[in-house]
Amino acid sequence: MDISAGMVASVSAARKGPSRTADGGFAAPEILNDSPIPLAVLLLGPTGSGKTALSLALGERFGGEIVSCDSVAVYRGMDLGTAKPTLEERARLPHHLIDLTEPDQPYTAGEYSRQARTAMREIAARERMPIVTGGTGLYLRALTEGLFAGPERHEALRARLHLSSQKRGSAWLHRLLLRLDPASAARIHANDAPKLIRAIEVCVKTRKPLSYVLGDRMLARDPLTGFRLLRIGLNPPRQALYDRLNLRCKAMFVAGLVAETRILLERYGPVKALDSLGYRQALAVLRESCSVDEAVAAAQQGHRNYAKRQLTWFRREPEVRWITGFGDEPATLRAAAELVKQNMHTADSGAK
Fold it and tell me: What confidence tens digit (pLDDT) does each residue in 66-81 have?
């Protein structure tokens, strides 16, 4: 595989930002929030769009702390395939909700919502600005809107459904849900196995359709309160984004993604977390079902497809201020900083 070792540096080189202060402390905010209700910035956008670079730049400029919103970055040891902020980047500003648990431990959107809200409130209590950044749309929605208080996970049932879907395909799950809850089956895509499994699980445990449970006022969602939310979305040119993703995937493999995956597999076995993008393709190399070149190409395609799905999801988010550019570009930083300044001076009588 003709890959330059210099590509390794590209995983983090694009995320350069302002350095720490001369005494080693964190930068003081350029401007203070003059509203009694604290401002929280939510950085949205597809993978590879430069959210980390922008979060660091804004955090150092306005006195912020970073709250990760990534469903794989919560796992320890999964570093290369997740493009986590490097240790050097994490030293520049406090980061939260990274390396929380082991890859063989389940971690849910509900757990994320509870821990992220706690982190945001603690950050605001220190009179700093929470900056939520990451690409997991479900986690972001759980944070801002809450999740319905449905039944707890039934791991044995979920495992059986997951095994059956692997053997029969997600279409089988969709047909099963269609018999149990036609309304939910009409709403959930036939290929969305996680949502299908959850809907079936709710039906079995409550003996009621998910659509009925969702309509129960006692199980209503619990939206985030106490903050004014500024949603900033990154929407770089599509081909330029794909070029970056292709380069980043190559760099991950050069940096040792297959070796990292081997260590994780030996330590935890074939856990669900290893089905994540990049790790899935590295596993195929370890199992000798494809070459490294083929794995890189598959990972590149997977990341491009994932970026498309992320943009589709985030376009459904309310009141997003979209910026056409990458987060490490000066024009993007200027535009984002201006949005933050405007919202820091917005006196709002209510909080969302």
Answer: 999 999 999 999 999 9
